[in-house]
Amino acid sequence: QGQLVDSGGGSVQSGGSLRLSCAASGYTANSYCMGWFRQAPGKEREGVAVIDSDGRTNYADSVKGRFTISQGNAKNTLYLQMNSLKPEDTAMYYCAADVQWSRLHYLCRPSVSQERMDYWGNGTLVTITS
Questions:
Q1: CA-to-CA distance for 20 and 71, rounded, in angstroms?
Q2: For residues 20 and 124, is the Cβ–Cβ distance under 8 A?
Q3: Judging by beta carbons within 10 Å of its beta carbon (0-12, 13-18, 19+), is residue 95 exposed, middle or buried?
Q4: What is the model's pLDDT at position 109?
Q5: DSSP character for 114?
Q6: Tens-digit pLDDT profile for the chain (130 aa)?
């Protein structure tokens, strides 16, 4: 069983920055779709940013130009650099991975069906204050 451990959340003022990290272990994937999702109180969990095994990235419209998703060289660590943070970004952030992804099946996008994700982190809380 694979495991994802996400971290890096905290409390930041509007306009500030945070970098989230996700450490993966317990599995090997040559083809994958990985990303970050968030859930605010009273709202459904939504996709924020994703990256696939070809290095393609995609972002939700609400975070384009502010957030950047990337991987470490060993590809066992996922990052989300968040800049120009807004109160609307306050949420629990989760990393997730589909380790059997294929472009023949679906495009790796933030709107990906969350049922496709094989592994989920436990979440890290991001709070943006005014």
A1: 11
A2: yes
A3: buried
A4: 96
A5: G
A6: 899 999 999 999 999 999 999 999 998 888 999 999 999 999 999 999 999 999 999 999 999 999 999 999 887 899 999 999 999 999 999 999 999 999 898 999 999 999 999 999 999 999 999 9
In this predicted structure, what is the pLDDT of residue 29?
Answer: 84
The pair of three-digit structure tokens given for residue 45, joined into one six-digit string: 């969990």
On the 0-12 / 13-18 / 19+ scale of CB atoms within 10 A, 27 is middle
Q: Are 74 and 10 in contact (CB under 8 A)?
A: no
Rounded to a whole number of angstroms, the CA Rg of the chain reads 14
Question: Are the C-beta atoms of 78 and 55 separated by less than 8 Å?
Answer: no
**Rounded to whole angstroms, what are the CA distances from 44 to 47, 58, 61, 80, 114?**
10, 20, 16, 20, 11
- Among candidate residues 74, 69, 37, the one with its CA nearest the CA of residue 56: 69
Do 48 and 67 meet the contact criterion of CB atoms below 8 Å apart?
yes
d(CA 11, CA 87): 11
